[in-house]
Design goal:
Ferritin; about 0% strand; about 170 residues; ferric iron binding; 5 helices; Ferritin-like_diiron; mainly alpha; Ferritin_DPS_dom
Length: about 170
């Protein structure tokens, strides 16, 4: 296996492997949320977060493909166990927003580092991640807005759960 690339510095390889790790960890976080939601009877929300989990693996594949295209084998990361328990559906949604903000910061850092290096291949990938994060933040903010508009009474959470299930379709 080649360990060096003509077009990817060691710093870029490290950042791309970190992106793989973080996207795969995001998938695990959303899988844990989905499982908790399903266990608590929020089947629509569980379906939506399961879909989010799958989408995060697609994001990880983007960084893997960039590494492989440059003759670098991506690292298969060891992942820590994500949080397993939540207080409520609103707690899950608020946790998801905080997580997406953290990931957005990471994607900005990848793009900025690539730009400083003049690595336009990785800049383009970083911009793709940033655009994707704008969508992710928007999706979760929509759910936060629904909570703020209609409250957290059980009947409203039931309706939000049903709406989230429709978003998953």
């Amino acid at each position: 296996m080649k360990t060096k690339s003509e077009f990817l510095s060691e710093a870029m390889v490290k950042l791309l492997n970190y992106r793989v790790e973080q996207e795969e960890f995001s998938s695990r976080i959303y899988l844990a949320m989905s499982t908790w939601l399903d266990d608590k009877g929020f089947v629509g929300a569980a379906r939506l977060f399961k879909q989010y989990s799958v989408e995060e693996l697609v994001h990880a594949e983007k960084a893997k493909k960039m590494l492989l295209a440059n003759g670098i084998r991506p690292v298969t990361p060891a992942l820590k166990q994500p949080k397993q328990d939540f207080i409520s559906l609103p707690d899950v949604i608020i946790s998801a927003l905080a997580h997406e903000k953290e990931i957005t910061t990471q994607c900005y850092a990848l793009t900025e580092a690539a730009h400083k290096e003049g690595n336009f291949m990785v800049v383009e990938l970083g911009l793709w991640y940033c655009k994707e994060q704008a969508e992710e933040l928007s999706k979760v903010q929509y759910l936060i807005d629904r909570l703020e508009a209609f409250g957290e009474e059980s009947i409203m959470l039931r309706e939000l759960d049903e709406e989230m299930g429709e978003l998953a379709d």
